[in-house]
Write a structure and sequence with these properties.
It is a single chain. The longest helix has about 60 residues. The relative contact order is 0.09. It is built from four helices and two strands, in the order αβαααβ. It has about 140 residues and is an all-alpha fold.
Amino acid sequence: MLKKFSLVLISYLFSSTVLANTAQQMDYHAWKVRQEQHDLRLKQYKSSQNIQVRAVQLLDTSPAVHPQSQPQTVILGEQFSVNINTATVQELSAKLSDIGTKKARAIVQYRQQYGAFKRIEDLQNVKGIGEKTFEKNRNKLKIRD
């Protein structure tokens, strides 16, 4: 009788442990899915916030900052595109994603050394500009005004 009771007790403890582990795994997977969705929303929000902040920095023409300037009319989308053959280091780093001052300087130096870019794809010849960075910025790049 004691053996039978011991077997029943061990069986019960084992099955409850397995059920508890399964429940924990299900909770973890549900949490992980929710966390990944939240991270994606944050990434999209931060991306849109960066664009808005950069646009404000580039288009700020208030009289307090620039007393002689007049308000500008900007065509939607134009404020975010950049001519890689004429842009300054500041313009490149402000308007392009994942392009800081160092990479922007490399772009300008490459342009000075090898001449104007013939195609926007030639930007990938610049050291530090890979396929991923290029693809993130493809829609913002132009080579003519």
